[in-house]
Amino acid sequence: MSVELHKYFETNKETWNKKVDVHAVSDFYALEDFKKGKTSLKKYELEALGDVSGRSLLHLQCHFGQDTLSWSRMGAKCTGVDLSEKGIALANELNKELEQNANFVCCNVLDTSNFVKDKFDIVYTSYGVIGWLPDLKPWGKMIAERLTRGGTFYMIEFHPIVWMFDYIEEKPEMRYGYHQKEVIYEEYEGTYADPNSNMISKEFGWNHGLGEVVSSLTEAGLTIEYLKEYDESPYKIFPELIEKEGGMFVTRDKLYPLVFAIKATL
Ligand SMILES: C[S@@+](CC[C@H](N)C(=O)[O-])C[C@H]1O[C@@H](n2cnc3c(N)ncnc32)[C@H](O)[C@@H]1O
User: Fold this and answer.
1) Which atom of ligand 1 is closest in space to residue 20's alpha carbon?
2) Residue 90 CB: number of other CB atoms within 10 A?
3) What are phi and psi for residue 96, nearest 5 degrees?
4) From CA 258, how far away is CA 8, in angstroms rounded?
5) What does R_g of the chain's alpha carbons equal in angstroms?
6) CA-to-CA distance for 81 and 105, rounded, in angstroms?
7) Count of domains in the chain?
């Protein structure tokens, strides 16, 4: 890895470590409700993966483990991976407190196969993940390495069009290329889970078009079952989105989708 790339990952890790403290007490992550049994999973992933009971599941970029533990409470045998030591430490605490038997591993997601040797029935990743990775080829390869033959990969992610906007501004402005190769640096006060926090987020990210995402998976040997694009997002990613029934958000004119999902098999 180049010195430059190492610096980007280290900066992102520092920011995510700080975010864990802020997110753990945020209304957004509603940790007390979660502890009482509320799932953190949203309708898209719940419908797509269905009954996970008895299945092994690898959750990539698991933050502090809410989704991992939600799948675990549904009977899956889960492993969560994340770059942030603080995220993994909190995930381990929650695992103990909630009497689950999930396993959590702290590493760069691209290095997962160096740290996790098991193969899984399901590899899952969600909402705000691939933008932290400079190149999706090693990511696709790692997913193929960690799936059992016939296993399912499912991702639910914000649409690449969404990442073209600088949404730190009050009115999102289209500023970045749909699949630009150059790194994007952003520095701002607060986080998506608590915009009023005075923590400073310093982040290096990359945009990836749908073609790159799909190709990184097919070139690694996966077969795409579907690629779906949705107008409705379970998260209010832009300030002016309109809330619909069931806690979903849409743009006023629905000119572009907010979320996409891929289901693939090995
Ligand atoms: C937006 S969060 C994922 C959100 C997730 N759906 C949740 O449970 O809230 C992105 C996660 O990616 C992690 N991350 C960022 N870069 C990473 C990398 N290179 N390797 C592993 N994890 C990374 C961050 O630490 C963070 O936990």
Assistant:
1) 27
2) 21
3) -70, -50
4) 26
5) 17
6) 5
7) 1
- 83 inside domain: yes
**Cβ < 6 A, ligand 1 pocket:** 9, 12, 16, 61, 63, 66-67, 82-84, 87, 108-109, 126-129, 132
Nearest-CA residue for atom 17 of ligand 1: 83
The residue-averaged pLDDT of 223-237 equals 96
- Average pLDDT score over residue span 218-227: 98
Of 39, 43, 42, which Cα lies nearest the Cα of 30? 39
CATH number of the domain residue 213 falls in? 3.40.50.150
What's the pLDDT band for 221 if we cut at 50, 70, 90? very high
Beta bridge partners of 259: 158, 230
pTM, full prediction: 0.97
Collapsing DSSP states into helix, strand and coil, what is residue 83?
coil
Q: Tell me which H or E stretch contains 97.
A: helix 85-97
Name the percent of the chain lying above pLDDT 70.
99
What is the pLDDT averaged over residues 52-81? 98
